[in-house]
Structure formats: structure tokens, C-alpha cells
Amino acid sequence: MSRGSGGTSSVTMRDVAKAAGVSIATVSHVINDKPGARIGDDARRRVHDAVAELGYRPNALAKTLSQGGSRFIGLVADQIATTPFAGQIIHGAQDEAWRHGYVLLVANTDGNADAENEAIAMMLEHQVRGILYSSWYHREISVPEQLELTDTVLVDCFARGSGLCAVVPDEEQGGRAATEKLIAAGHQRIAFINTTTPSPAQTGRLAGYRAALDAAGIEHDPSFVLDASPEQEGGYGAAGRIVESGVTAVFCHNDRVAMGLYDGLREHGLRVPDDVAVVGFDNQEVIAAHLRPPLTSVALPHYDLGVVGVRILLGLDTADQAIPTLVACPVIQRQSV
Asked: What pTM does this model have?
């Protein structure tokens, strides 16, 4: 079974872990002789036996780099590189890493657990300075065990009780900013089309909407808060209720809902913004900039999330491990208000 004689460079910590019947984290603790690691004698022996039998040795390049200080930062993401706007996290992280002399190693796993484990193991073998772990939308996650082996910052996601710093969009501030934009334009009867999908965006944007109304002294009308599926069909289906409510402005949970609302309002003979002003959320350029009229939208700060994630990882900015660092969501003004 030995692979030590000819192909040692292809043997990874994952191979050793599989042969020894332990986790990748255990293998890393053993081969790096990590102080304080609670590993039984039997597991330690199995790891050493697997290392010897497979001929495993740490990546030579990574070892050389680590002796002088690794200049790699890892970024592991589920589907971020394939989404229409979330790839900006990678751009922000890459730009900030370069500014400080680091190279960003990116792994897009498409949500595959095996690919994710392999990617993290590879980055650990290359002795990365740390890892940014990101999801394609803001949510709570379960932290992969291997991330305990290096400095880690969560980006666009969080894990309560994990002890890891997290950087996320300020959903409440974004919802407040969207509603304030409509109030500033003179509107008092403002509806909010929220999503039916539980998420930080669902609760945060609603809280921001209510906070803006409170600050302006506008009484809440529960009938002005509508739930709809977070797609174009949801906004289209809500149009009739919007017309019946007599509101003059609508804040939509996202741009796809706003796109559907445009269609529904048009069928009812109403014009945006002359009859009903509309604000979206996400600032998906392919939608917001090309609707007629172009849609005012609150942007998710993906680029800045990547920048701040790197800065926290490198110790350039401080962060509270118990509370996610919030990044503001700016309003992008167009002609729908």
C-alpha cells in the first residue's frame, strides 16, 4: 500500500487521516506536535504509522514559506464565485491581500463537503496565514472542524458560540436606509414586501423599515407589511394587494421582487415612480440598472466584506468575537423614487 517510494508529493493530510481513521485536524495536530492537543496514544501511533507507510511529508514550498512567514491567505467559499454579484467578496479580499503583500488562494466548493475538506487541508499544508470562510448569502453556518487549526474569519456568514470573528452586511441599517429614502421623497404610506424565507435579511430589513418609520413619527400599519416569495413571481403576485392598500411607495425585499412588482403595477395602469415609488435591495446590476425606470436599490457591500475580512484576519482591524462586525449597505440612487 505504500506510496512513499515514488509519489510522496501527491500524498495529502487527507490521505493520512483516511488511513489512520482520524480527522484531518488530528493529523495536523500530530505532525505539527501542537502543544496542548488532546490526542490519545493510540490515535497518535496510527497517524505516525500512516505517515511512515504512505511516505507523507509536508509540502516543501509551504515549509520554506512558513520559515520566513507564509504570504498566502486562503478563501473557501460555497458558491460565491458563480453568483452574479457575490464574487465581489473575492475581489475585495484579493485587493486588500495584495496591498499587504499576500496572495489569495481561492477554492470554490459548490457546497460539496468533500471538496471543502480537501481545499482546507490543502491550504493548511501551504501554511496559509489564515482562512476566510464565506457563504454566498448571509446566514448562520456550522464551522468545519479543520478551521480550528488556523486563524479564521467568517465572511457573509456567522456561527454563534464558535469564537470566530464574522463580517456580515448590516441588514437593519440597509432596511432603514431604504425606507428613509422613501420618507425623504415625501412618502408617508410606505409598504414593505418581505420574504417568506427565514434569514437575517428577513428579520433585519423589517426591523430597519420599522425603525425608520418610528424615527419619522409615522405609525406602523401592519397591513402594509406583505410576505411574498423572494422571486419575480412574488412581487408580481403582491401588486394587487399593493394597489388595494393605497400606499404611495414600496420597499421590496430584493430586486427580483421589485422587478415583478413593476410588471404587476403596470398591468394595473400605475407608473413608477409617478404613482408608486419603489426601492429594491441587493443592487443586482443586471436587474436594477436595466428596469424602466432604473431601480433605486440598497447594495450589499460584498467588496467591502472581503476587504474587512482580510483586515481582521491580519490584525489590522479589531473585532469582537461575540458580535459580528457589521458593514453598511449603501443606497444606489436611480429613477424609481
From this structure: 0.81
Judging by beta carbons within 10 Å of its beta carbon (0-12, 13-18, 19+), is residue 23 exposed, middle or buried? middle
Residue range 248-278, pLDDT digits in tens: 999 999 999 999 999 999 999 999 999 999 9
Superfamily of chain region 68-169+302-328: Response regulator (3.40.50.2300)
Q: Helices marked H in the chain — which ranges?
A: 13-20, 24-31, 41-54, 60-68, 88-99, 113-125, 171-184, 200-215, 232-245, 255-267, 285-288, 302-313
Write the CA distances from 256 to 7, 119, 259, integer angstroms: 51, 33, 5
Run of H or E residues at 194:
strand 190-195
pLDDT digits (tens, 9 = 90+) for 111-157: 788 888 889 988 988 889 999 999 988 999 999 988 988 899 999 99
The CATH fold assigned to 8-57 is 434 Repressor (Amino-terminal Domain) (1.10.260)
> What's the half-sphere exposure (Cβ side, CA atoms, 13 Å) at 97?
28
Q: Hey, what CATH class is 171-299 in?
A: alpha beta
- The 8-class DSSP code of residue 300 comes to P
